[in-house]
Automatic annotation (TrEMBL):
Residues 12-239 form the ABC transporter domain. This is Molybdate ABC transporter, ATP-binding protein. The keyword ATP-binding applies. Keywords: ATP-binding, Cell inner membrane, Cell membrane, Membrane, Molybdenum, Nucleotide-binding, Translocase, Transport. It comes from the Bacteria. InterPro entries: AAA+_ATPase, ABC_transporter-like_ATP-bd, ABC_transporter-like_CS, Mo/tungstate-bd_C_term_dom, ModC_ABC_ATP-bd, Molybdenum_import_ModC, Mop_domain, P-loop_NTPase.
Length: 367
């Protein structure tokens, strides 16, 4: 388990969770620790993510469970301890904002506010000052989610639960909200358990990733470790893509931003981040081309020298190639035919080529 470099690991509160529960033939048997920051529960449909969230919220009584926030016990079935949901100190963000329709945004925010938290600071952080006198039905889906984030923060929670909070939004709205979740991650002093199917959200938001498969934790680590592992494919082969960490070097007049990724320049469509900002970029495996020689006369701007670490053949014609580069571990999806023609094998030197425009805006995050 790790905390991404540069991320404040402080704040102190740590969630420890051990759960066992059976629904017919489905058996949940999960154990993990979530530090401050965003712990993403990542897994295919039916792997048990929502069951973990519901049990943590106190909305489901598991067969066996011990859930603690530092020395505070939320439930311990062995000792008969069971705190009801409203005594658990939770901030909850659902798929839809679930704001009170008859209250204004300000009243919604104040409803669960604890004295300690400052309304003005949260309103400023989320950019919702102009919305305070409106009612929820007069807000877009993205605005409602910003208010829901604010409401969760103002309740001064010890733990925030976010259940696929972007799933109901279209792509432009998702892109609009992701930066606010990044701010929540960096502002909240408590752990955030965040459920998603989306590799882009894992790459952008996660401090720690917990991978679930059929009710079991199969992997836990940083986004770079987990998304760079060719065996972790809960979002299907098209969702596979590694995460690189890089620093914004400069913005160019022709609409490109140059990053420094371990000494290698990477060019992206222009971002707003100031030079010096640390970023994470997810690079989809299917957007990476491999070449044995350094290619010349090619339109792609991003060429990373590297060494093949391993290959993993799929059921179809494709192979995932793990390439270690100075910028970090990359995954490339090539055909088995190409892998054989290029004689790719562990230890072989190669170049990974990534088109600038293949790096989607939602795949570029700060932190
Ligand atoms: N109340 C219930 N009664 C019976 N079975 C249930 C109940 N809730 C969940 N299950 C089963 O438990 C398993 C895990 O469900 P869960 O909702 O936790 O998965 P998930 O990973 O959140 O899935 P999704 O991504 O589709 O939301 C599934 O097989 C589901 O059918």
């Amino acid at each position: 388990m790790g905390v991404a470099p540069g991320r404040r690991a402080g704040g102190g509160v740590m969630l420890n969770l051990r759960l066992k529960h059976a629904f017919g033939r489905f058996r949940l048997d999960a154990e993990f620790t979530a530090p401050a920051g965003v712990t993403v529960l990542f897994g295919r449909s039916g792997s048990g993510k929502s069951t973990i969230l519901k049990a943590t919220a106190g909305l489901l009584r598991p067969d066996e469970a011990r859930v603690t926030l530092n020395d505070r016990t939320l439930c311990d079935t062995a000792k008969g301890v069971w705190l009801p949901p409203h005594k658990r100190g939770l901030g909850v963000i659902f798929q839809e904002g679930r704001l009170f329709p008859h209250l204004t945004v300000r009243q919604n925010l104040l409803y669960s506010r604890r004295k300690a938290s400052s309304l003005s600071r949260v309103v400023e952080m989320l950019g919702i000052g102009d919305l305070l006198d409106r009612r929820p039905r007069a807000l877009s889906g993205g605005e409602q989610q910003r208010v829901a984030i604010g409401r969760a923060l103002l309740s001064d929670p010890q733990l925030i639960l976010a259940d696929e909070p972007l799933a109901a939004l279209d792509e432009p709205r998702k892109a609009e909200i992701l930066p606010y979740f990044e701010r929540l991650r960096d502002e909240a002093r408590c752990p955030i358990l965040y459920v998603t199917h989306s590799p882009a959200e894992v790459a952008r938001l996660a401090t720690t990733v917990v991978v679930l498969d059929a009710g079991k934790v199969t992997r836990q680590g940083t986004p770079a470790d987990v998304l760079g592992d060719p065996d972790v494919v809960p979002a299907g082969i098209r969702g596979v893509g590694a995460v690189l960490e890089a620093t914004v070097a400069r913005h160019h007049d022709d609409g490109l931003t140059e990053l420094d990724a371990g000494g290698v320049p990477l060019f992206l469509p222009r971002t707003d981040a100031a030079p010096g900002t640390r970023t994470r970029i997810r690079i989809a495996a299917q957007e990476v081309i491999l070449s044995r020689e350094r290619p010349v006369g090619l339109s792609a701007l991003n060429i990373l020298p590297g060494t093949v670490a391993s290959l993993r053949a799929g059921d179809g014609p494709g192979t995932l190639v793990v390439v270690d580069t100075p910028a970090g571990r990359l995954l490339a999806r090539v055909t088995r035919r190409s892998a054989e023609a290029l004689q790719l094998a562990p230890g072989v030197a190669c170049h990974a080529v990534v088109k600038t425009v293949a790096i989607a805006r939602q795949d570029i995050g700060q932190g």
